Amino acid sequence: MNAREAARKIVEQHFPSCTGAVLAGSVVRGEATNTSDLDIVIFDKKLPASYRTSFNSFGWPVEAFVHNSESYKFFFESDRKRARPSLPDMVANGVIIKNEDGIMDKIKVEANQILTNGPDKWTKEEIDLKRYFLTDVLDDFIGSEYRPEELFILNKLMDLVCEFILRTKNQWVGDSKGMYRALQRHDDTLTEELIRSVDTFYQYNEKKSMIEFVDRILEPYGGRFFEGFLLGKMESAQSKEM
Q1: 156-164: average pLDDT
Q2: For residues 173 and 163, is the Cβ–Cβ distance under 8 A?
Q3: Sign of dihedral through CA atoms 83, 112, 75, 86?
Q4: Residue 64: which of 77, 76, 73, 51 has the closest Cα?
C-alpha cells in the first residue's frame, strides 16, 4: 500500500474522531528509504493533552504526533525558540489527509508564517557564548592524541560549527540528518567543504583542514574566544547584594 493511501486508512482506523491530519516526512519529500516511516500529525479538539505514539499499521511503521486545538501552538512556539521548526515544517510541508471545516488550512497558514519569519536573531552575547563553546571543543580536537576521543570530539565540533554557521545567518537548524539538510539548503558549497574536511580526518587522521574550516567560520565574529570570557559573575554578585 502506498504511503498516502496507508495514511488515510491509518487516520480512519486509529484516529476516527480527529478533525485534521497531515502526512509529512521523507515519504512526502520523495526521499523515502527502506526504513522510512509515516510521520502523521493529528489534530483532535476533544483530546485533553498532546501525545506522541509509534506503531505498525497497513505495512508501515508509523509515528503519530497527536494534538488538540491548543497544544500544537505550544510546540510551534517551542520549536521557534530553539530554531528547530520540527512541527511547523511537518505541518507546512505535509500533505493534508483530513481537513474538516478547513482546520488544516488555518494551521498550515500559521506554520508557514513561522517558517517565513525565521528564528530569533542571535544577540552579540549569544554569538560570543557560542564562540567560546566552539573554541573549547576545537581546542580539545587540536590537543587530543587518542583517536577514539577524537572521533567523539569531531562529532560535537561538527554540530557546533553547523549551528554557528546557520544561526549567525538567521537560518533554521536541524538535528542529525536534518542539520545536514539545513546547511545544504543554506550553502551547498560550504557544506561540501565541511564534509571534505571531516572525511580527510576520518581517512587520513589529518586535522588541518577541519581546524582551518572552523577558524574561517569564526573569523568574521572575532575568531576563537577564550581570554575575557565571563558568564554568571555579575548575576552572582547581584544575588549576594540582595
Answers
A1: 98
A2: yes
A3: negative
A4: 51
